[in-house]
Amino acid sequence: MRDRRLFIRLSEATAAARCPKSLKQSLGRFARNNGFDGFAYLSLHPIFAVTDYPAEWQRHYFERSYMRLDPVVTGARRVNEAFPWSVDQQRRGACSDLRRFYTEAADFGIQSGVTIPVRAGHNRFSIVTLCTASSKALLSDIELNAVEGAWAGALVHAKFSEVPDEIVTRAEIDLSWQERLCLSWSAEGKTMLEIAMLEGIAKTTVRFYIDKAKKKLGVMTLPQATAKATDLKLI
Predict the structure, then answer these.
(1) In angstroms, what CA-CA distances link 125 with 9, 80, 218?
(2) Are residues 103 and 218 in the same domain?
(3) pLDDT tens digits, 2-46
(4) Is residue 46 one of the residues assigned to a domain?
(5) Which of 11, 146, 190, 197 could form a cystine bridge with 185, CB 3.0-4.6 A?
(6) Do 124 and 27 lie in a common domain?
(7) Could you tell me the end-to-end alpha-carbon distance of the chain, in angstroms, rounded to an integer?
(8) Cα-atom radius of gyration of the chain, to the nearest Å?
(9) Are 191 and 223 in contact (CB under 8 A)?
C-alpha cells in the first residue's frame, strides 16, 4: 500500500536533495520506495525532461514530439491540481494516433500514475509524474491533496530550474533555413517589415516563419526565440 501522504514525503525528498543530479537519483528511489517504477519531470517551456524512464523511450518520445499528443500533458494543461491516470481508462474511444501512443508507452512500462501540473511565471509550464507498469495501479491508496501536490510540484520545478546537460533529455530542434534566416535578421535588430524588404518577401511570410520557429523552440516571444536559437547555436 502506498503512503497516503505521498506528496508530503515527495516534498521532503526534494528539499533534502543538494543539487539537480542528486534530486534525479532521489526521485528515482522515492518512486520505487512508494510502489511506482519511475518518475519524470517534463518542462514544456523550454522543452526538456529529467527522468529515469528508459532511454529508448525518451528518444522516441522527443523524436515524435509526443509531448503534443500525450494525454497526460494535455490533461495537465486543463487542470490545476494533481490527478491520477491510467492507460486502460484513456484508451477507450481513442483515435488511432493515441492508441499507438498508448501501446508504445505500455511497451516501455508506462501504464498508470499520478501527475502534478506546475505553472510558473512567463508562461512556463511543466509536469511531475510518478508512473508504474501496472495497468491497475492502486491509485485509490493515494491521498491527492491539492495543496500538498502543488507544493511538491513547485519544489521539484525550482530544483530543476537550472539543470546540468548530463542529466537532461532535450528535443532536437530542426529549424528550416527560412526560419534561421528570419531569426538571424531579428537578432541583428531588424523588424519584420525590414526583414521582408531585405529578402523580397511579404511581411506575413516573415511572421509565418518566426511563429513556426517560436513554436519549435518552445518560447512565447521573438526576443526569447532569438536568445534561445543563439544559445543553441542555431543562428
Answers:
(1) 23, 11, 11
(2) no
(3) 456 889 999 999 999 989 999 999 999 999 999 899 999 999 877
(4) yes
(5) 190
(6) yes
(7) 52
(8) 20
(9) no
- The backbone region for 200, taken as left when phi is positive above 0, alpha when psi lies in -120 to 50, beta otherwise, is left
CATH number of the CATH domain containing 206: 1.10.10.10
Report the distance separating Cα 147 and Cα 145, nearest Å.
Answer: 6
Contact predicate 14/151, CB 8 Å: no
Are 128 and 190 members of one domain? no
Q: Does residue 132 form part of some domain?
A: yes
Residue 1 has pLDDT above 90, yes or no: no
Q: Which of these three, 121, 151, 170, is where a domain ends?
A: 170
Which amino acid is located at 205 in the chain?
Answer: T
Q: Which of 150, 162, 164 is nearest to 11 (CA)?
A: 150
Q: Which three cell numbers stand for residue 222?
A: 521573438
| CA dist 186 → 117, 138, 180, 217 (Å) | 34, 52, 10, 15
- Rounded to two decimals, what is the model's pTM? 0.75
C-alpha cell at 123: 508562461
Q: Is the dihedral of CA 127, 128, 133, 135 positive or negative?
A: negative
**Is residue 1 included in any domain, yes or no?**
no
Residue 99 sits in a domain of what CATH number? 3.30.450.80
φ, ψ (nearest 5 deg) of residue 125: -140, 135
Distance (Å) of CA 32 to CA 10, 39, 46, 167, 204: 12, 9, 28, 19, 52
Among 7, 24, 29, 15, residue whose Cα is nearest residue 58? 24
CA distance linking residue 226 with residue 219, whole number of Å: 10
At 118, is the secondary structure helix, strand, or coil?
A: strand
CA 123 to chain centroid: 13
